[in-house]
Write a structure and sequence with these properties.
The chain is of the alpha/beta class. Among the domains are: 175-390, P-loop containing nucleotide triphosphate hydrolases (Rossmann fold); 399-527, no CATH class. Helices cover 50% and strands 8% of the residues. The strands form four sheets. The chain has a five-stranded parallel β-sheet with strand order 7-8-11-4-12, with helices on both faces. Helix 1 packs across helix 4 (93-109) and helix 7 (160-180) packs antiparallel against helix 8. The longest helix is centred in the N-terminal third of the chain and has 21 residues, at 66-86. The chain starts with 12 loop residues before the first helix and ends in a 6-residue tail after the last helix.
Length: 533
């Protein structure tokens, strides 16, 4: 029996400060410098400097600070619980708060390795219906033990299944972000931090509290997370990986844990559904997006469910080149964003879209609005959350070692050597070729896509021939010869075809923009050496 309600603090000032640092680690964006600083403060002289970009990267070796942090957290929590149990007075609110923050850290990081392994299995598209967690009973037991102090349940609103679902989402987000966007420069770090915010907002504590108000993440007519119905717009130059960024965000939605089956029910094929608008006619776009009934238009021989309809509640539909849709479809899409409802072509039945909408474009939508080609109200709906991908030049300018790192990543994809050293050898060869033939200040107008093409060309032919647009504007590029009237009509057409293709990203979209046959555009682009034949 405890005597009175004396406010007795058991933790010393050092342990209280440690708990504060762990609370900060749990709340701050893990890809920002503040996270690194909090780890340093929590460990003091034993902290091992890992740098900003490597500190949290799965697959590059364990962060040496994680295990000492976990061991210290377990030790402080166990000591606090033991002293509280033997005390004759109730512990202070400060001790309760500290115990709760330390407990959450211990629970997450005690299982994070297993969660990473599970997340990696569904990081790529494929059919996955059951992600079993046979160790959930032990996790629940650990949760109750860690969140109990003097017989009182701390954070009583937090169930083990809800915490596990949040922890699994965090692990999936880590894996998806790193699987889809590499780089160590400040621009790369900043983009990863922005991707994390798109998934969890800038305040993950508020995000966690919001889950409590959605019936344990129930999808029965309600949002499954704070961000599930907030659209994301990804902009940036062509070739900078906008779809990969969209995929990382779209595949990282909150998935509730099913206690009865001890599993997460995840249809991986419905997590991320991309529609490449520039390659499709308006009728096909409308059918893909909204679905159709049999006979709704010529060729509609059977009913078709739309991407909006089959998208998982915790998944996303991705609209690539959003600026390509016409005015009629813009109005219909606006309705979806306003009330989450749509109807199939030729049908009057109202259906609901439960997933998230992510869109991308390399066009300036402000200019498109001013030109009357894009609705301003739709733009503001799409732009609730905005991500911008940096150019390759921005990445390289931020870190002198970034080129070697990115080249190594490309080489590993081209030559998965299993330890034979082929990829490493080719990586050095490619870096030497780029430095001697293109120069370290080369602008890479085709961005990361051009770097990959350069690697393929050097691998096959020992050299890479940049296309007409692969020269920076400040170095005259192809606009200089135009101004000097030096290009023939044939050369001018080729240069412009390449320019539009690199901006749009597809032969179909470029052909439509140019008013040419797709085969003509492809022949010009391939002939210029910009794309493989």
């Amino acid at each position: 029996m405890y005597i009175g309600c004396t406010d007795m603090t058991i933790l010393n000032s050092s342990d209280l400060a440690f708990a504060k640092h762990l609370q900060g680690i749990a709340r701050v964006n893990p890809f920002l410098p503040e996270r690194v600083e909090l780890e340093r403060l929590a460990l003091g002289d034993t902290y091992v400097d890992m740098g900003m970009a490597k500190a949290f990267q799965p697959g590059e070796g364990p962060n040496p600070n994680m295990q000492p942090l976990l061991e210290k957290a377990r030790r402080v929590l166990a000591d606090l619980q033991a002293r509280a149990e033997s005390s004759k007075t109730r512990v202070s609110q400060a001790d309760k708060d500290a115990a709760g923050h330390i407990a959450l850290y211990v629970l997450y990081h005690g299982r994070v390795g297993q969660l990473y392994e599970l997340a990696a299995k569904i990081a790529l598209p494929g059919k996955t219906n059951h992600v079993r967690i046979p160790w959930f009973p032990k996790f629940e037991e650990s949760t109750e033990a860690a969140l109990t102090l003097q017989g009182e349940r701390l954070m009583p609103e937090e169930t083990a299944e809800r915490l596990l679902a949040l922890f699994f989402q965090m692990a999936r987000a880590f894996v998806n972000i790193y699987a889809n966007f590499v780089g160590r420069s400040p621009a790369a770090v900043s983009l990863r931090a922005s991707m994390w915010q798109s998934i969890f907002t800038h305040d993950i504590a508020r995000y966690r509290r919001a889950l409590l108000r959605t019936d344990s993440g129930s999808v029965n007519g309600s949002a499954v997370s704070l961000t599930s119905d907030i659209p994301t717009l990804v902009t940036g130059p062509s070739g900078t990986g906008k779809e990969l960024v969209a995929q990382a965000v779209g595949r990282s939605g909150f998935v509730p844990f099913q206690r009865e089956s001890l599993s997460f029910e995840i249809d991986s094929s419905a997590l991320f559904l991309p529609i490449h608008l520039a390659a499709l006619s308006p009728t096909i776009i409308e059918s893909e997006l909204f679905g159709h009934r049999r006979g709704a238009f010529t060729g509609a021989q059977e009913d078709r469910a739309s991407f909006l309809e089959v998208c998982a509640p915790h998944g996303a539909v991705f609209l690539d080149e959003i600026a390509e849709i016409d005015g009629t479809l813009q109005v219909k899409l606006l309705r979806v964003l306003q009330n989450r409802e749509f109807s199939r072509l030729g049908d009057s039945v109202s259906r609901r879209f439960l997933g998230r909408l992510v869109s991308a474009t390399n066009r300036n939508l402000t200019e498109e609005i001013e030109a009357g080609r894009f609705r301003e109200d739709l733009y503001y709906r799409l732009n609730a959350d905005h991500l911008e991908t940096p150019s390759l030049r921005e990445l390289l300018d931020g870190d002198p070692n970034e080129l070697a790192h990115l080249v190594g990543y490309v080489a590993d994809k081209l030559l998965p050597d299993g330890g034979s050293g082929e990829a490493s050898g080719f990586s050095g060869e490619l870096c030497d070729w780029i430095e001697s033939s293109l120069g370290l200040n080369y602008d890479w107008p085709g961005n990361f896509r051009e770097l990959e093409q350069c690697a393929r060309a050097v691998l096959v032919r020992g050299q890479y021939r940049p296309g007409p647009t692969s020269v920076s504007a400040k170095d005259a590029g192809w606009t200089g010869p135009i101004a000097a009237l030096e290009l023939s009509a044939d050369e001018l057409l080729t240069s412009y075809c390449v320019q539009v293709f690199q901006e749009v990203g597809t032969y179909e979209g470029a052909a439509r923009r140019l008013g040419l046959d797709r085969r003509t555009v492809r022949a010009r682009v391939v002939g210029a050496g910009v794309a493989p034949g």
